[in-house]
Amino acid sequence: ITEVSPNLLIINTIPGNANSVAYIIDDEFVSDQLYGILGSIAGDDTIFVAVNPKQFDVAVEQLKKFFQKDI
After folding, report:
1. Assessment of whether the complete model's pTM goes beyond 0.70
2. Which residues pair with 5 in a beta bridge?
C-alpha cells in the first residue's frame, strides 16, 4: 500500500488480480464507510483507493490488517 496524498492510496497486485482485490475492498469496506474508504478503481495490477482524509490513517490500518498474511 502506497500513500500518495491525503485521500488516495495505491495498491499494487500481481498482474490480472487488481479487479478482484478492488471488488473485495468495495464489498468489505465501502458500503458502511466505517473506515473512510470511499471506493476504488482498478486496472490490471494497480488499484486507486479513495479515502476520506479525516480517516486516512484508520483506512490504511484496516486495509493492512485485512490483507495481512500469516507467514
Report:
1. yes
2. 8
d(CA 63, CA 49): 10
Phi/psi for 52 (5° steps) reads: -65, 120
| Separation of alpha carbons 71 and 56, rounded Å | 27
Distance between CA atoms of residues 50 and 6, nearest Å: 9
21-46 confidence digits (pLDDT tens): 999 999 999 987 789 999 999 999 99
Non-local (6+) Cβ contacts of 64 within 8 A are 1
Contact yes or no for 1/60 (Cβ under 8 A): yes
